[in-house]
Structures are given as structure tokens and as C-alpha cells.
Amino acid sequence: MDRTDISLIALRRILRATELYGKELANAAKLTAAQFRALQIVGEIGHATPSDIATRMGVSQATITALVDKLVARGLVTRERSERDRRQTNVTITAEGQATVDEAPDALQQRYVRKFEALEDWEQAQIIASLERVAAMLDAEDIDASPVLTTGDIHHGGKRH
Q: Domain named HTH marR-type: which ranges (predicted)?
């Protein structure tokens, strides 16, 4: 097998791992990876503003509004007016939401982060350079992407990607 085939197989394995994790999460928690990440962010301190969630996920405010709407409908979070600034809304995790985070399968992203951060600095830099090069080879350097590993559509600024 030549190097081109080996590289394509590695790329397919990465894509497949992301897809399988999305399905595993959907089956276990009945959430998309993006919904789950938003829930994790809120769960880290118990509450967050929609703007904070959008910033952490690298997505638009409109995307977060849609994600939070779904989480509210499921009873995983609530929206509450800030006591300090009545113009501000806080998204607060419910007991059911926290249980969902606690019981969900180990996130692919968390596994990656753990293993990546355990690497030597030079190896991290090499991986970043290689991944950026692959993104450029796929003409993907201008695609708006958050650090959330996900499959399916994510809305960025009202556009589907």
C-alpha cells in the first residue's frame, strides 16, 4: 500500500471515529455532540450566558439560541434572568442536565485532549502543523469551525455548513 492510500485510510478513520462517537452520544444521551458540549460548558460552573457558550464553542449566538432551546425543552437547562443585570440571561443546568453530563460516554474530544496534552511540546506542534496542512489540502482553511468535534450540520451565523 502506498503512502497516499495510508493517509486516506487514516483520514477516513478520523472521520469515522467522529461519526461513531456522534451516534454513541445520540443513543446514550439523546443529544448531538454540539448540544452535549453546550451542556458541558453550562455544567462546569452551573450556569453560563449564551454569549459565553457561543464564544467557548466558536459558534454564532443564533446557533446557541437553537441549542439552548432544545436543552430547555428537554429539561436539561433553564433560562433565568441575571440577578446582577436584568438584561442578561443565564443558562443554568438542572439536576437532570448534570446527570446527563455525568452519565454520558467519554467524549471523543475529551479523549483527544487528554492524549494530546500528554504529548511533548514538539510533538503537539508537529501534529498541529500536519493537521493544518491537511485542512489546507482539503481547501478547508476558510471553513468556520469550533473546537467541538461534531458531525452533522452546525449553524454559523445563520448559514449551514
A: 1-136
